[in-house]
Amino acid sequence: MKSDTAAGGGRPPAGDAPRHAAPRGRKRVTGTRRTVAALFLLPAVLLLGALVVYPIGYSVFRSFYDRSGDGFAGFDNYQALFSDAGIRTALKNNIVWVVFAPTLATALGLVFAVLTERVRWGTAFKLVVFMPMVISMLAAGIIFRLVYDQDPDKGVANAVWVGVHDTFAEASAFPKAHPGRESPLAADPASKGSFLTREPVSAGEPVALPLVGVAPDLMPDDAATAVRAEAEPGKVTGTVWQDFTRGEGVGTLKEPDPAEFGYAGMRIEAVKDGRVVASTEARGDGTFTLSEAADGARLRLPAENFKEPYNGLDWLGPALVTPSIIGSYIWMWAGFAMVLIAAGLASVPRELMEAARVDGANEWQVFRRVTVPLLAPVLAVVTVTLMINVLKVFDLVYIIAPGSSQDDANVLALELYRKGFSEDQPGVASAIAVFLLLLVIPVMWFNIRRLRREGRR
Questions:
Q1: What does pLDDT average to over the chain?
Q2: How far apart are CA 267 and CA 286, in angstroms?
Q3: Hey, how many other C-beta atoms are within 10 angstroms of the C-beta on 387?
Q4: Helix count (H) and strand count (E) of the chain?
């Protein structure tokens, strides 16, 4: 016999009542879900409107008005984007930034991420490389302003560069030396920077070649107290020295004194009819000896004795300022690229790499044919993210580039600041802001689309 419930039409037992049923007269929470969601979203919407939507809308509106904000200017401010020389330079530099900075930072991050997988201290290395990300752009700009200082005693970049240069090309020890009063030497008209004796010299008669201009504490380490050269039959002898003694009225002019040093290593040439017939270098005490071929010749101190020391490159000059600032940006953001690429690399199936090695591929082929293609989505996201970032770069350029070359390093964000505040052209500044937004939107759209595509996989 079937129960009434089974036969249909009967009420289910009280114990089988749905647990989620709400008591009568009481409002369910699910009925107010939209209202609750709206209340939670309201603060975010207000902040978004106040900090993003309103500034964008006002910038678009202001870009169509003149400097005073009262007169409608139409598209005149936008025409200035392509007619103003400063804005054109900024646009050109932004193109250089977008092409090189993200590419180099991503490539460097890829190399770091791959190589640190094979070393024990990879985590420590990643920490050191990522550490610049902790530093603000302002602090990084101050650091690299010092790094690129022209003085090799202050700037690290030029200290290294000068050290490498001087390893292969020795600098002169007498860059400031020159003839003093009543000197037998005069400037050589045939060789710029050289000095030539006024009269020919004779064998057996010592020659005095006094110079001034080098501080005693800057003399070469092998310099010794200058002495008067002894005459040698058939040979030309002489002394080249620093003819200066500290103290007023101390020392004898054109005569070596006990407190004066010889120009050790100074090169001396004997010239006849414009041709060098003999040459030598001064000893530690400044004395020198030339063969009998020098008899009747004029002595020349060539310009190589007095060339200025190499002071390195002008990193912040017009030619190198943009690459130098890009270098500082890469120093900061290569760690960011490395961390994201390392996370992507951790998810790459190792079986594919091992299979490639078993098939005979070397490490370079595995990297090029397996690792890079598998990391292509991550590399694209990192590159596009950095492209968006460099379009807005401002701090580094403003801090690192000196006033003399800031026009050459100019970028759109800096030009926006200068037009809006320094030159009082808010209309043009607003047009630059809108133009920057239009440049960023396609890149952001591409990045979002790629992320969604990856999410669907």
A1: 86
A2: 10
A3: 22
A4: 15, 8
pTM of the model: 0.74
User: What stretches of 14-109 adopt beta strand conformation (E)?
Assistant: none
Query: What does the DSSP 8-state code read for residue 430?
Result: H
Q: Extract the tokens encoding 107.
A: 């490539």
CA distances from 319 to 49, 314, 401, 407 (A): 43, 8, 12, 12
Which parts of the chain have pLDDT scores under 50?
1-9, 15, 17, 22, 30
Radius of gyration of the chain from its Cα atoms, rounded to whole angstroms: 38
142-151 — which CB contacts under 8 Å span 24+ positions?
142/399, 143/328, 144/324, 144/325, 144/327, 144/328, 144/331, 144/396, 144/400, 145/316, 145/399, 145/400, 147/328, 148/315, 148/316, 148/324, 148/400, 150/311, 150/312, 150/314, 150/315, 150/316, 151/311
Eight-state DSSP code of residue 307: P
Picking from 315, 376, 389, the residue whose alpha carbon sits closest to that of residue 341 is: 376
CB atoms within 10 A of CB 89: 16
The HSE-up count of residue 205 (CA atoms within 13 Å, CB side) is: 8
- What is the set of domains in the chain, with CATH numbers? 76-159+315-456 (1.10.3720.10), 185-305 (no CATH)
Whether 352 and 374 have beta carbons less than 8 Å apart is answered as yes
Exposure of 116 in the CB half-sphere (CA atoms within 13 A): 24
